[in-house]
Amino acid sequence: MKTLRETACGQTVKVTKLTGEGPVKRRIMDMGITKGVEVFVRKVAPLGDPIEVTVRGYELSLRKADAEMIIVE
């Protein structure tokens, strides 16, 4: 079990679970990141924040803390 934060650049992974509570989880889901969706990691900033991903054709930037709440396979 690994998180989106541990995913290497250029990889496409499938979301298996979202951890976290309330508004944080809602914000992630509002971005279109839900269970079963594929996420392509485009770019990771040198210090790991932000992580740029493509989800459902949209390019998004995620904070490191948010990426840790997304469990992928």
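The above is record 1. Record 2 follows with the same two-line structure.
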Amino acid sequence: MGYANTILDTIGDTPLVRLNKVLGGDFPALVLAKVEFFNPGNSVKDRMAVKMVEDAEKDGRLKPGGTIIEGTSGNTGMGLALVSIVKGYRCIFVTNDKQSKEKCDMLRAVGAEVVVCPTDVKPTDPRSYYSVSKRLAKETPNSWYVNQYDNLSNRQAHYEHTAPEIWKQTRGKLTHFVVGAGTGGTITGCARFFKEKNTSIQIIGVDTYGSILKEFHETGRLYYDHAYPYITEGIGEDIIPENYDMSVIDHFEKVTDKDGAIYARKLAREEGIFCGYSAGSAISALVQMKDRFSEKDIIVVLLHDHGSRYIAKIYNDDWMRAQGWL
């Protein structure tokens, strides 16, 4: 009989789907979407959640009956919650107030405790979700602070699984890999694998205005005072996580909050692929960069998560009108 022993065994082997309409009829290259909402937690973060937990179990950082604590925009939390359910851990997740209500409700639905912090504070502020996560980890007995930003198991999961899947699905023919950049795990893990296979494969990170990733990549300098709050969820950073290896990334393309939202909606209506905010940003980035590509190119764009997590925001006409975007 064909069945999975647990829901965790269904992670991975997500489909590669050709995009036909959303990029416009004059887009020169073949674009294939790696649709990650087919994972059981509906996002790419399921992959690294399992890897981070299993590595922590192996080296003793996470002990039986322990509590997993993490700062998350929602998707990593969902992946960690699924792992915790199967393996018997308690979860406390810290998020910020710009995240959609659906994400918090979703985490509570799978048994996690959720703490919401303000967005418009510096990472070092004691009220930030970085600081609150660390404080809770110190105060909670038998707990493990995941720290997806600096936990190198994050990028290793994508080096070991996500990138090899894409390589196999494209028979090694991809010329560009485009992905929203946040913690750095997906883009760096995949980039390292692809560059080992073929150094000419171009790695393009999708960033947002208000984030410092593109500036740091281009200058090597940290200008924390250049960061400012933005609406886009799931990409961009006001810190540089240790998961980043900027040497394997060729280019960062910035996308506005508005364009990310609009292209997410277009992706749903024109391709039937109901994805999240960062997917719209990735599609918008491709449109902006159209002149860089040729008919010979095969582009793989990774679509992080499912649109159901953004119903009250980008898929809500009233919310879009309130932003002046509809």
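The two ends are 50 Å apart (CA to CA).
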